[in-house]
Amino acid sequence: MAARLLPAARFIIKGSLAGAAVYVAYDQGLLGSGAEGAEALKKAQTVLPPAIKEWTSYVGWELPPTPKIDFSPSDSWNKGVQTVMSALSVAPTRACEYTMEGWKYMKDLVK
């Protein structure tokens, strides 16, 4: 009986942790727009360093100072999306050009 309950309990615990992680991410605005994500990142950058410093002083560890990051996720995301869309927009033209070059190469080989 206990052998059957252990896998079920593990499944319930893992599912609960996954659900809690999704809820926290949604509640903090990480699953929203890019602006909401950038705001959540700024909020985390202001809240986490004091919390980590307090925790490390409690444990007795000494960590190096956190680096200052001037990074905009929304700008990087938009740049990535623009790059991918640009590549996809020219893909049919490039495929046609490469096909023509391939046929020309094959014709030259057959001659």
3D architecture notes:
The protein is 81% helix and 0% strand. The protein has 111 residues and is mainly α. The model has no long low-confidence stretch (mean pLDDT 83).
Q: Helicity range of the residues?
A: over 70%
Largest pleated sheet? none
Report how far apart the termini are.
78 Å
Low-confidence parts: none
H/E order of the elements?
Answer: HHH
Instruction: Calculate the mean pLDDT score and round it.
Output: 83
Number of helical stretches of at least 4 residues? 3
* Principal-axis shape: extended
Structural class: mainly alpha
| Count of individual beta strands | 0
Binned strand content? under 5%
Evaluate the radius of gyration: 26 Å
Protein name: MICOS complex subunit MIC13
Main location: mitochondrion
Organism: Aythya fuligula
Membrane topology: Single-pass membrane protein
